[in-house]
UniProtKB/TrEMBL annotation:
Residues 116-209 form the Terminase small subunit actinomycetes phage-type domain. This is Phage terminase, small subunit, putative, P27 family. Residues 7-16 have a biased composition (Polar residues). InterPro entries: Phage_term_ssu_P27 (IPR006448), Terminase_6 (IPR057630). Residues 1-21, 188-212 are annotated as: Disordered.
Amino acid sequence: MVKKRPTNISARNTEPPTDLPEAAATVWREIMASSDLAGTVDRSALEAFCTLMARLREARQRVEDEGMVVKDPRGRVIPHPALAVERQTAEQIRAWGDRFAPLVKPVRKRGYMADATATSIANATHLSAAKYAGPIAALKTLAWMIDEAQRESMEALQKAMTTTVPNYLKACTELQITPASIPALVGAETPKESKGSTVTNMREAAEKRRAG
């Protein structure tokens, strides 16, 4: 009896579908290059995730290139439509949790919100169960998005105060951990001065910012 040669499933699954748009295919290759998913990945799920990531990147790039506000056909100044696309897409990506997390780990910049949130999670012993992996990954993503907004501009941070920050606070409440504060909003010079802040601190800071 002739033995069949083993199929190289990993090599076969590494390449993206031929009909996947190039931007999404780029995300696919990034994931495959930074993880051991090949051979075990749900290709349909990964294709959907890559499409979302490509859409998010495109929306962010448009905002970066064209600004956060634009004029509508009547000449009125309105928020860039890509901001809504970015927000909605980020929410959809959040639902995936850390299923394809290797994509973002190598490229994310460190930031105070992300670091402080990671410390809070590490000190929360009740979150050690595997069932919290997805919510924890989503929370870390929100913290990273706030850091990115701070790095981008005050306008981006103000936008995050009405979208990303409320979701971050809600996630912290659900996971029963103390959220990090936002130095740029509370006037702290360094992250150390914000240690021990509470949800109330962040909400009061947001109200002060809006009032000012």
